[in-house]
Write a structure and sequence with these properties.
mainly beta, four-stranded antiparallel sheet, 127 residues, 10 strands
């Protein structure tokens, strides 16, 4: 874990009732409830020490939450319960080459409206 929090990406759920956040510095995924125009922290899910969750995206159906873990060079898929605003267990994790060198970094994730394709953007260290 880093010395301090570094919120990275914010994503509203389809109903606008919850705001999901990745925090690169604290290695946590956080869900805030939107109540009367204010944010109330609902829950935090530890993503793994030194994982550095960054770019994230919510599946259009609302049952899966994807997070890129920059320090591990992995993509993780978590269960998400939109009704309760809870990020659950990690159901899949994909590792990508180059994690030791840290030469590439995913800057954004986006899901096709059908939910069948996940797109990423990457930057090399020189960009």
């Amino acid at each position: 874990m880093q010395a301090s929090a570094h919120p990275h990406t914010l994503v509203f759920d389809a109903a606008g009732r919850h705001l999901l956040s990745s925090d690169f510095g604290s290695d946590r995924l956080t869900v805030f409830a939107v109540e009367d125009g204010r944010l109330k922290r609902g829950m935090q899910q530890f993503a793994g020490e030194g994982s550095g969750p960054g770019a994230c995206a919510l599946h259009p159906a609302g049952a899966s939450f994807y997070a890129w873990h920059e320090l591990e060079n992995t993509l993780a898929c978590y269960r998400y319960d939109a009704a309760s605003g809870i990020v659950g267990e990690r159901i899949q994790r994909l590792s990508f080459p180059g994690s030791a060198e840290g030469a590439h970094s995913t800057k954004a994730l986006a899901l096709h409206p059908s939910g069948r394709m996940l797109y990423t953007t990457q930057a090399t260290r020189n960009q």
